[in-house]
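Troubleshooting: if your tokenizer reports a length mismatch, compare your output against this known-good record of 134 residues.
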Amino acid sequence: MTAFVLDASTVLAWLLKDTRQNEADVLIRRARNEGASAPRLMALEVPNGLRNRIRRGMLSARERDDLIGDFLQLPIEWDDEADVPALVRASERHDLTIYDAAYLDLATRRGIALATLDERLAKAARVAGLALIP
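Known-good structure output:
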């Protein structure tokens, strides 16, 4: 069993060393020590975020490949149990993307905390009564 759900905003902040890198570093360290889970879609969401950086001229393909390697080394337990109708309802209820609703759903189903740097997702987690990290 993992300690918390880790979302793509946190992983991307860690990989790209953005303005929230210090917070992301703490969460990635915790994931390594305590274990983290994520919906399988994160395996697509993170590379897509990196691709968008390439399109904007902020990252090279070689840098992307190195970052994807770092991402794939993270100790993430992948979850494939998404209930699509439930994700749609959560998305509408909390005004989230379906992707973000998947993180909320996973934390809810497992009864564990959610680690996110996304403010909208954090707000939805609070409304849903989930514990948040940080």
